[in-house]
Structures are given as C-alpha cells and as structure tokens.
Design brief:
By secondary structure, the protein is mainly alpha-helical. Helices cover about 50% and strands about 5% of the residues. The chain folds into two domains: about 220 residues, no CATH class; about 90 residues, no CATH class.
C-alpha cells in the first residue's frame, strides 16, 4: 500500500498531522506477525486474541485486553524519521516487533482474565500498586528476572516483570526450563506456566474492544509529537565526555577508538569498579555512553595501548560521580 507522504522531505513530513497518515495495520508488514502471535497463543491452548490498533506508542491500556502499536513501525519512511528524531526505533525488525508484541500480550492477557489478584502473584512479582517510576536502574547480572527486551526491563516495575516473564514463556524459541535453570526467575516462569494451564480453553472475563489513543483521533503534527516525545524521554543531545575524550585520541590513521573500546570494555569496567568501589553493573551505562560517542567518529589511536587503557580508566573514574549525579546511569521509561 502506498501513501501520498512517502516521498516528502523530513520537514514536510513533520508538518503533517498524525491523523492524516492514514495508516492501515492490516496492510502493513506487521499484520502477519500479529497473526503469528495469535497462533502462538492458540498453540498454548489459550482462547485469547488481543485486538490491535494504531497509536503513537506501544501499550496495553488498563482494563482492555488489546494492544496499541505505534505508527512509526508500520512504514519504512516513518521508521527512518523515528530513527533520526529519537536515535532508535522500538519494533522496526521482525524479531524486535515480535518481542514487543509478546510483551504487550502479557499485559493484555492480564487485563482480559483479571489476573492481577491471583494468589501467589505478589509474592513472586512484587506489589503492583507501587507507582511507576520515571526511570530505573538495573542489575544486569541478576538471575531473579528473565532477559527479554533488554536493559533489564523486567526490573523496571512488577507489572513489567510479569509481562517480560509471559513473553519468555510464550516465545516458541525459548527453552525457558533449561535456559533459566538455577535462576530465581525460573520460579516465576513455573508460576506463569501453571496459571496459563488453568486458563486453557477459557474465555476472557473482559471482552472490551475499546480503542484508546487511536492515531485517527490525534490532533498532533509529527513535529509536535516528537517535541513532546523528546521531553518525555529526556533525550540527551550533548555528549557526556565530549572534548575530554578527544584529548585522549587523535584524528587520522591508527586503530579506531570504537574498536579499542569494544576490545577493552570488560577490562575497563573491572578497573573502574575496583577504583571507585561501585558495582560493575553501575559502570556499564557509562561505558555504553563512551562507546556511543566513539562510534562512527574520527577518533583513532597510535601508540602503547596499555597507556591508553590507563588514560581511559582515569577518565572514567574522574567522571563517574558526575555521570551518576546527572542521572545518566538510569534508564528512562
């Protein structure tokens, strides 16, 4: 399906109203993947098909057994714009789309069968009534949570822990009993498995087909949408290390800064943790920012790599307090 806006410039596209995009979920590349989700649910014996609609974000509204799918994943032109404006796109590939779809299905089935009050859930997943944080930090080495969407998203809130656990349980490629053997997360998966067996063949208690925040009802232009999104996501435009990193490297021939950082990342993390007294998982976000600044840049190095490692370690140690003070170690929800 073609659209009149496909060949517009970024500036022209940004002035377009979201409602005027006229996107069709059924005609998009995502439609077969939604059918795949339905088949996966059916293979598990679940009589549940969440209804889907186009909105401006991924979400499943409280009390509605459905899934909102963001407009920007539905067309390559919009994927390109989203990546330019936000630096990343959630769900632009088959694999990432399915991961997010299974995650949201975990919320949707929760709403459809009113599972939040089930016995044993709070004991395993935590209090669902605690407020959602604006951001969170996580322990990448914790074995109490499944690993699905990345950035330790299961650790963000008990409801996300539930949805991530459901997604792993549902995925046909996850041998979760073997993969999570010996982990605390395995008990959550076993609990999920037992609960879903109980739901086999049953109809959802909540059958609402209500659509929340439909793209067709939006009054925003894409420009206003991205202005709001940039604020809500607290997109950081300025590099953290900047000129300090450039003083360590040179411009011209040699080994690329990105290559050196990738090779020595683990060694740097251990060294900085030892000197600052922080856990290694607390150092990881700073290393990610450092690598991001070096990626695609003209930073190179010639000389003794041991001396370079020492300079980078000193830089990271000196900047670790400022990094945490600015809240850069936390993941924005």
């Amino acid at each position: 399906m073609s659209y009149f806006w496909e060949n517009l410039s970024d500036e022209e596209l940004l002035d377009l109203n979201l409602a005027d995009l006229g996107l069709s979920l059924e005609a998009s590349w995502c439609a077969p993947l939604i059918k795949q989700l339905e088949r996966e649910l059916s293979r598990k014996g679940l009589n549940f098909k969440p209804h889907c609609w186009v909105s401006d974000e991924w979400f499943s509204p409280e009390g509605i057994p459905g899934i909102a799918i963001p407009f920007f994943v539905l067309h390559p032109r919009l994927v390109k714009l989203e990546r330019k404006m936000m630096g990343e796109v959630e769900g632009a590939t088959i694999q990432s789309f399915l991961k997010l779809l299974r995650h949201e299905a975990g919320h949707a089935i929760d709403h459809g069968f009113s599972l939040s009050r089930r016995r044993g859930r709070e004991q395993r997943f935590g209090d669902l009534n605690i407020p959602y944080p604006n951001d969170y930090s996580y322990r990448p080495y914790s074995k109490n949570f499944v690993r699905h969407l990345g950035e330790g998203y299961a650790q963000a809130h008990p409801e996300e822990d539930w949805a991530e656990t459901f997604a792993v349980w549902l995925s046909p490629t996850e041998n979760w009993r073997q993969k999570y053997k010996g982990w605390g997360a395995l008990e959550k998966l076993k609990y999920m498995n037992k609960l879903m067996i109980e739901l086999k063949g049953r109809m959802p208690r909540v059958k609402s087909k209500e659509v929340i925040d439909s793209l067709a009802d939006s009054r925003l232009t894409l420009r206003k949408y991205y202005a709001r999104k940039a604020i809500s996501k607290r997109v950081k435009g300025r590099p953290f290390f900047g000129a300090k990193l450039k003083k360590i490297f040179t411009r011209g021939n040699g080994i690329s800064g990105e290559s050196i950082l990738r090779t020595n990342k683990n060694k740097l993390r251990r060294a900085v943790a030892a000197q600052t007294g922080q856990y290694q998982y607390e150092i990881e976000p700073m290393l990610k920012d450092l690598l991001k600044e070096a990626r695609g840049s003209t930073l190179y190095f010639k000389g003794d790599v041991k001396k370079l490692e020492s300079k980078l370690t000193t830089l990271l140690v000196e900047e670790s307090s400022r990094f945490k003070r600015q809240g850069r170690h936390r993941i924005v929800m």
